[in-house]
Amino acid sequence: MGNHAIDVTDATFASTVLESDKPVLVDFWGPRCGPCKMVAPVVEEIARDHAGTLTVAKVDVDANPMVARDLQIMAVPTLMVFSGGKPVTTMRGAKSKAAILRELAPVLNSDG
């Protein structure tokens, strides 16, 4: 998937996130969201740092309302971690890299 966050749509969410064999960090964001712009470079940095062990995806909730509705994303930014096709943690609001990595640690350090 490369060393950067990938854009995911309503149509590609299941195949990219739910069917991934690696843990997935999903950044739900909106184009008019100030805090989302602060989180974006942190998410990209995490994507680069963990390219071999983690898939990082971004979902524009304005352009892809079905996924946001199905997962009950009420505010952005929201970061969700999926492992084995299931959500394992949710972080709401702008978070620091350290805070995000703390939430990712259990899935990054597990053998599946």
TrEMBL record:
SUPFAM superfamilies attached to this UniProt entry: Thioredoxin-like (SSF52833)
Gene Ontology BP terms: cell redox homeostasis
Family: Belongs to the thioredoxin family.
Site (Contributes to redox potential value): 34-35
Any GO CC annotation of this UniProt entry: cytosol
PROSITE patterns, per database record: THIOREDOXIN_2 (PS51352)
Protein name, as recorded: Thioredoxin
Domain called Thioredoxin: residue spans: 1-109
